[in-house]
């Protein structure tokens, strides 16, 4: 496993802020509308399902690497868990990986690789790649941000790994831009 560092602050900060102050700061921020942040994913992708925790797009053409699914999600987690992930992403990777593997089991997909990316001192990103039964590729990224008590995720299942990874990476960068204030929340 590799750990990749992004941003000027590469050291894990001391997370001295009290839980109450942290929770208040997170409560003061508007929820991020991941669907609006990402927008239209590209040719061939059709919005199929929208809910409180995200949106699903489906593609039935070669324009997106064959039949595929793109899921953009936002699930609530406790502020303490987010603090733990950001403070020590290596330590929490085992539980994150177990939960991810279990949630993917019904789809017939498994992730073979996981990478940790630190995006500044308040944000951690887990990237994973794998495969699904029938030869499809799977790519997923989940971001934990100290300023929001949510897991923000992008999951792509499609026939071509390169297209799955490219769409995952482009989508997560749009979400990061929105987190940094480059797009309006909901």
Give a description of the structure.
- This protein has 186 residues and is of the alpha+beta class.
- 32% of the residues lie in helices and 36% in strands.
- The chain contains five helices and eight strands.
- Strands 1-5-6-7-8-4-3-2 form an eight-stranded mixed sheet, sandwiched between helices.
- A hairpin with an 8-residue loop joins strand 3 and strand 4.
- Helix 3 crosses helix 4.
- The chain is globular.
Using brief descriptors, characterize the structure shown.
186 residues, 8-stranded mixed beta sheet, 32% helix, 5 helices, disordered N terminus, alpha+beta, single chain
What is the gist of this entry?
With 186 residues, this protein is of the alpha+beta class. 32% of the residues lie in helices and 36% in strands.
Shape: globular
List segments where confidence is low: pLDDT < 50 over at least 5 consecutive residues: 1-19
Strand content: 35-45%
Counting copies of identical and different chains, the oligomeric state is single chain
Q: Which percent bin holds the helix content?
A: 25-40%
Write the layout of secondary structure elements.
Blueprint: E1 3-6, H1 19-28, H2 34-38, E2 45-51, E3 54-59, E4 68-76, H3 79-87, H4 89-104, E5 109-119, E6 123-132, E7 137-145, E8 148-158, H5 161-179
Parallel strand pairs: 1-5
Antiparallel strand pairs: 2-3, 3-4, 4-8, 5-6, 6-7, 7-8
Helix pairs in contact: 3-4
């Amino acid at each position: 496993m590799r750990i990749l560092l992004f941003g000027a602050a590469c050291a894990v900060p001391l997370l001295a802020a009290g839980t109450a102050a942290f929770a208040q700061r997170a409560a003061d921020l508007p929820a991020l509308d991941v669907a609006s942040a990402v927008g239209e994913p590209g040719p061939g992708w059709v919005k199929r399902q929208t809910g409180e925790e995200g949106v699903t797009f489906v593609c039935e053409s070669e324009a997106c690497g064959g039949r595929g699914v793109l899921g953009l999600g936002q699930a609530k987690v406790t502020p303490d868990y987010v603090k733990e992930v950001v403070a020590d992403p290596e330590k929490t990777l085992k539980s994150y990986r177990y939960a991810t593997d279990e949630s993917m089991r019904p789809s017939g997909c498994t992730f073979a690789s996981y990478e940790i990316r630190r995006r500044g001192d308040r944000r951690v990103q887990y990237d994973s790649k794998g495969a699904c039964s029938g030869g499809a590729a799977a790519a997923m990224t989940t971001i934990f941000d100290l300023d929001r008590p949510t897991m923000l995720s992008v999951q792509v299942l499609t026939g071509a790994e390169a297209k799955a990874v490219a769409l995952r990476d482009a989508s997560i960068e749009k979400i990061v831009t929105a987190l940094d204030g480059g797009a309006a929340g909901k």
